[in-house]
């Protein structure tokens, strides 16, 4: 006997509650930003801050709800490419809807374009970071399985490994060599100062000797 198809159920709780949390977070950020910007740019900083908080909250909650709905409806088991597609479409829809509601019809197309780019770039960056983190976790798990000690690196060491980072990681040997070079430099400067001091003392003795020779003898 065939079982009847289950009716489609929209997981409102699983979508709306996280969207409201994201909206609260982005709204708080917008409120803080609006407070600072309102003091600098507006004659009514409180109203400016409230307006910014409401707009940012609407952007965050709408984006998250739209993205979650797209993933639930079209991509039950989403891949990285599926998440990128959902974030791109959600960004465009959010920018168009919120831009039209808060800033008028003229801002629908610019808002759609701008937030489509934001959604694509944001998901791309997040995907790259997530993939790197997954590789690190897999590498740590393999090292633990093989009995190898995990190579713990501090935050600044990770920053120094970035290609364009101005920082450089020094080993104990490199640091010791650097200190030796500085010590040799200081010793050379001290030797030059000693030579200058001896030269000045020699000139001072010569001046005294000349003054002693030039002093006339008293007549009797």
Largest sheet: none
Number of strands: 0
State the end-to-end distance.
150 Å
Residues in helices, as a percent range: over 70%
Percent strand equals: under 5%
Shape: elongated
Spell out the blueprint of helices and strands.
Elements: H1 12-41, H2 45-74, H3 80-103, H4 108-145, H5 155-160, H6 172-214
Helix pairs in contact: 1-2, 2-3, 3-4
Describe this structure as you would to a colleague.
There is one protein chain. The protein is mostly helical and about 220 residues long. Helices cover about 80% and strands about 0% of the residues. The protein contains six helices and no strands. It has helices at about 10-40, 45-75, 80-105, 110-145, 155-160, 170-215. Helix 1 (about 10-40) runs antiparallel to helix 2 and helix 3 packs antiparallel against helix 4 (about 110-145). The longest helix is centred in the last third of the chain and has 43 residues, at about 170-215. The mean pLDDT is about 85.
Task: Give a short summary of the structure.
The protein has 220 residues and is mainly alpha-helical. The protein is built from six helices and no strands. The protein is elongated, with a radius of gyration of 36 Å.
């Amino acid at each position: 006997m065939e079982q009847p198809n289950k009716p489609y159920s929209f997981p409102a709780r699983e979508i709306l509650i996280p969207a409201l949390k994201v909206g609260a977070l982005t709204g708080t950020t917008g409120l803080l930003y609006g407070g600072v910007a309102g003091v600098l740019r507006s004659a009514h900083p409180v109203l400016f801050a409230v307006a910014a908080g409401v707009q940012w909250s609407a952007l965050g909650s709408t984006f998250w709800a739209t993205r979650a709905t797209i993933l639930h409806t079209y991509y039950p088991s989403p891949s990285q490419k599926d998440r990128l597609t959902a974030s791109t479409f959600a960004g465009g829809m959010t920018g168009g809807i919120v831009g039209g509601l808060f800033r008028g019809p003229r801002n629908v197309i610019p808002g759609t374009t701008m937030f489509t780019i934001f959604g694509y770039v944001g998901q791309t960056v997040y995907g790259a970071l997530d993939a790197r983190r997954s590789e690190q976790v897999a590498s740590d798990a393999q090292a633990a399985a093989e009995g190898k000690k995990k190579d713990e690196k501090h935050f600044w060491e990770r920053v120094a490994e970035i290609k364009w980072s101005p920082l450089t990681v020094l080993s104990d040997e490199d640091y010791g060599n650097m200190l030796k070079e500085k010590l040799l430099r200081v010793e050379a400067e001290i030797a030059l100062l000693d030579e200058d001091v001896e030269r000045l003392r020699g000139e001072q003795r010569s001046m005294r000797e000349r003054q002693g020779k030039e002093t006339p003898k008293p007549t009797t």
